[in-house]
Predict the 3D structure of the following.
Amino acid sequence: MLSVDQVHFSYNDQKTILHGISIELKPGEVFGIVGASGGGKSTLLKIVAGLLDASAGSVSWNGKRVLGPSERLVPGHPEIQLVNQDFNLDLFHTVRENILVKILHLPEKERLRFCDELLELVELKGVESRQARYLSGGEQQRLSIARALSMESEVLLLDEPFSHLDAHLRLKIGVYIKQLVEIRNTLCVLVSHEGAEVMQWCNRIAFLNEGTFNRVDTPEAFYFHPTNFNEGAYFGELNELKKGKNAILFRPCEYKAVEKGGLEVSFRDAIFFGAYWKSFFRTKNKETIILYANKPLKKVKRIELKSQNPEA
């Protein structure tokens, strides 16, 4: 069990980044944290990993407190691995050496086999003899992920791990991590400012806003039942219709075309997105809304909302 208890963090006792963060996470879970860039997500992961001292509060793993850098000669917890934008590579070592140095405890044959498996996973076969300093940013990120996976830690913290990766690699590595969590009962925490990306892999998600967890819920709840437009927009396109002092929120898939009643709309344009078409409409109040379908919705004049989610 990973327990984060009332963690606060501020720089020079002036700018407060985190306000009383508390959460309990179990092995076998992929937990997501979503929020704005610069909102404290990376700071929280560094505190959890024992790489940064909290201003107040504590973090514990399996009942033992995770010590910060002020209490350890070598910062970091041995069973908690963080993959962040610094990559933390041995730049003058080759790609293969960067992985092998982390698995010296394994027998040689198993070590070489596991290394090849990870190189194949992150698609660095062919550059394994190149020094890490000569890799592109995307390649360094993939190598950083491979190094973290090679250590088979009990807790894996991923800070924007897919930011430099192509779509097929995101899917490939994401599936591998999901399977790893299930098979080895690992705990994985995935941080991103892209809620739509986090939804694919996580059992639960926390929305970090202004230094605190405003909400912890399932991906489905965040998508179909947003608390407000700001939160909901992190998890995909969201329509907002003004209704007095409040607003009605609905996803582009939450509608039905009707002949009578409902909301009157006028077609403006449509864009092809491969699996679906995105059609743009205007309402009588000159509000723009987006609807998804398997074809352009040029003939649609009225729609009925399947889920009218009023914004507080």
